[in-house]
Amino acid sequence: MWFLAVLPLAALFSAQADAGPSAASARALYVQPLGGCARQTPGVAEVVAALRAFYPIEVRVLACQELPRAAFYPPRKRYRAERLLAYLNQRMPKDGWRILGLTDVDISTTKGRYPDWGVMGLGELPGTATVISSFRCRKKARSAAHAIERLAKVAVHEIGHTLGLPHCPTRGCLMEDAMGKVVTTDRERDFCPRCRALARQQGFRITENPKAAWLQKR
Fold this sequence. Notes:
Number of strands: 10
CATH superfamily: Collagenase (Catalytic Domain)
Shape: globular
Order of helices and strands: EHHEHEEEHEEEEEHH
Number of helices: 6
């Protein structure tokens, strides 16, 4: 999981103000399946359920779109996540509040000295677009259901970035930095009090006592 800082300070305050419940109440968080449109994209229902559990806004699914050629990175046969974010921002419906792209291909971005770092997801910090992939969620997963649970957590994490939440040092928080390891998602359960408070400070209240599928397994 990763994030992309995209806005200067003046725009940051504007984005934070837009994140408030009043701004989101009449708008929707859109899920955009990307690629493989001839078949059903795995994990859509679970991702939608997780987003609805944590974020008190309407979640809608858009018709599947093929991956944009401009985002393909031939040297690694991957898709560049930041290019997918630009594509998603262009596809945001007029009543959109946030848009989340969902794919099963490998995605990557630049991270520090690594020009092409594979990621589970990338979100603007803050912003409106994020993209997630099930590709790395499947690595060493116990089952298909386990991989999709990981994907759902990544979705919640990346939308958190769009609200202005950075990575969290608290072990088990949904905003914890994966540090390139998918297994960190297996210990993540809920937002920690610090991240919930930070979201409130920025004008958005994350649902208390969410009914996420993985929380019901306690």
